[in-house]
Structures are given as C-alpha cells and as structure tokens.
Amino acid sequence: MIVTTVNVNGIRAAVKQRSSENLGLLPWLKESRADIVCLQETRADDEQLRDALAPALADDWHLASAEPHVKGRNGVAVLSRTPFSAVRILESEEFATHGRYIEVETGGATVASVYLPTGEAETERQLEKERFMAAIEARMAQLLAGNRDTVLCGDWNIAHTENDIKAWKNNVKKAGFLPSERQWLTDLMATGWVDVVRRLHPDVAGPYSWWSWRGKAFDNDAGWRIDYHLANAGLAERAVSARVERAELYALRWSDHAPVTVEFS
C-alpha cells in the first residue's frame, strides 16, 4: 500500500492555474504510484471538487470528501484506487462541518485526511486550534483501540522538533512551533502513534514539506516539516520507504506543500 498526502493549496489552482501539459495535480496523479492520496485545503465544495478532479475520476479514482462550511477555506478529501467500504467525518459538535477531517476504510486499512488549523499564538484562533486538537485526539484514541491498520495523513500545522523547521530559533513563540503544540504531538506518539517519515529518516533536518511562496525559502530549502503520516505501531513497522516529492525548481511547484509518500509492505 502506497499512501501520499498533500496540501493542494486550493484544488482549482492546483489543477488549472498552476498546471500545463506536464505540471499540476492531474499530471502528477497520472504518474503517481500511490494507491491512496489524501488532500487538504481543497477550498472547494463537493461539486467543485468533483469537477476539478473529473479527469482523475474518469481514470477510476474513487473520491470521498468533506467540504468546508466557509466558502474558500479548508476542505479535505481522499482519493483511492479501490472503493470505500466506509466514510466518516469527525464526530464533533463544533468541527463536524469544518472540512478538516475525513476518514475512510479502503484496501483493508483506515486512512484519514487531516487539516489542523494554523492558529495564532495568544489569540482566539489558537484556542480554536487547541479545541480541534482535543477533538482529533479523542478520535485517535478510539482508532488506536480498534486494533486496525490505521494512518492519519495531512497538514498538521505543527513542526514537532528542531529538525522539523529550518528557522526554529525564530519561531519558538509562534503558532506551529509552540512548546504546547510540540508536546501534544509527543504525547500522541507516546500513546502508540508513529511518525513514519521521521522513523525512516531519523536525526536529520527535514525532509521539509512546506516552503513559503515568498523570497528564497524554497531555493534555500528553508522549510517546515508539517505534513505527517501518523500510523499505529503495527502498520508503521511495515513502512519500507518515505519521501517528499519536492519539485526540482520553484517554477515547477503546483502547491506550497510537496506530496509526502510512504510505502507500506
């Protein structure tokens, strides 16, 4: 099973505005060996998403999506080469309609596409992020107790360690690298979740998966590693490779994130 996660930074932009014959989400999908692709920040309702992905759906990809409740924001989806036996959203009074979590069963595994809020230190936006973190933590505890191959993929908007952000010294008081956020990830992993990419790439800087559009961040590889595959221990043990599909040049990017791909045996 090969699973990819990517924040598309707007599905219509990834498909059209930054695409050509050989560039963009759709050409990438045609070349991908992935069995399952988790998408975040689609910024589209279900109809718009299906329209944007129509060529991929014609190629027999199956689609499950959770549209955002606010136009032009959030939105998550899962593409799979095999049909879904179940599709679920987050059971949360506050976040069920926010388009930040969708979970499917396919190919003998449970796979979720996750998009955490960005947050902003010492503001209501950060409190909202923390409430979402609590809601997803509760769901993850249920999944872990289910004893099923499970992986949650997505844009977690948290760099876990100093190895996960190039300019970590400049960000210790900013959302995405706050001590409380980093500890939350540490605590999740202590319960049995495994950061698969880090397990396969220990003690190295990166591999980063997000770079600002501005300046020379991409050219200088001054990025953040915030796109994770968190798997239960049994599935994580079967991870044989992990890579960030980083574009060769800034001009070839179709999102400010790069796809992160993990292969399980």
Automatic annotation (TrEMBL):
Cofactor annotation: Mg(2+); Mn(2+)
Binding-site positions, Mg(2+): N7, E41, D155, N157, D256, H257
Free-text cofactor note: Probably binds two magnesium or manganese ions per subunit.
Ranges for domain Endonuclease/exonuclease/phosphatase: 5-257
Domain of life (superkingdom): Bacteria
GO terms classed as biological process: DNA repair
Coiled-coil intervals, chain numbering: none
Annotated site location: Transition state stabilizer: N157
Record's keyword terms, sorted: Hydrolase, Magnesium, Manganese, Metal-binding
Site (Interaction with DNA substrate): H257
SUPFAM superfamilies to which the protein is assigned, alphabetical: DNase I-like
GO molecular function, one term: metal ion binding
Site (Important for catalytic activity): D227
Active site positions: Y115, D155 (proton donor/acceptor), H257 (proton acceptor)
Family from the record: Belongs to the DNA repair enzymes AP/ExoA family.
Protein name: Exodeoxyribonuclease III Xth
